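Shape matters. As here.
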Amino acid sequence: MRIWGVVYDTGVELLPGRPSRPDFDPDQVRADLGVIAGELHATAVRLVGQDLDRLRVAATAAAEAGLAVWLSPGLREPEPSAALAHLEACATDAERLRAEGADVVLVAGWEATLFQPGIVSGATATDRMATLGSPRRLLGSTLRHGPFPWALNRHLRRAARTAREHFAGPVTYAALGFETVEWGPFDLVGVDHYRSGEPLDAWAGAITARRRHGLPVVLTELGCATYAGAAERGALAWTVVDRDADPPRLREPVVRDEGAQAEEVGTLLDAADAAGAAGAFVFTYAAFSYPHRPDPEHDLDAAGYGLVAVLPDGTQRRKAAFDAVARRFAAG
């Protein structure tokens, strides 16, 4: 069976004081996962989060809904020892769930060059992105940490070893497109693969190229924000939000376009299938910290990637992309 899934956020805080999901209602989580299985026709869900109790609740609900569970734990700016201890705890939970009969995959980290300190220099993910974009800073980082692909794979070897000591199921990693990963310690190639204006055949060709490793290739993220032109910005379309404003607003005028989001996501799923991907996860079911408001300047959901819009009162409204994904997943 092909892996058709969505990413589901249980709550992360990648930037200080900016949790992606301040509120976590187990009943709402169970309802959402039931919709993902029954109405989106997904076969899998990638559960992203840092609170292990939340991940346990969501993983149990996902398994009960008949979904394959891809557990994707992570912490904000962790020291290497803390990151491995957190992964070990999640791996133990994953093995317990697997032993009970669930289909479980452990994602031993994601986009570590940006989110794991010590691979490139920088106190925050924003700082590390700046390092990667500056030859002078990158040289200094290389002198301190070693070439970043080497530092990345040293970290990933430790992560894979930790995962396998406590979990007997498949293990993967969710890579950035530019990361050069040594995939030998893993069972699947995972990549967060957005399109940022390049021709579709070039985007699909990158999937075909990753098959050279001899492992199934799964797109651990693909998606599009909800405004005209968002497809050209790919994974950076969310940056039009100004979170320093009170309340947060869009820093530039954009035109909300649910149809464009639906078209891009459907196109990418078809292209991934044709390129031989073993599966794909659409990012994301809901952008809980990007509420949909009628005022365009404060409609953060326009910059969100959710298949459902979250209203200020917490209720949800399905977007055109929801129906497009449901049709694609139902077709197999």
Observations:
- Residues 23 and 287 are 12 Å apart (CA to CA).
- The chain has a mean pLDDT of 95.
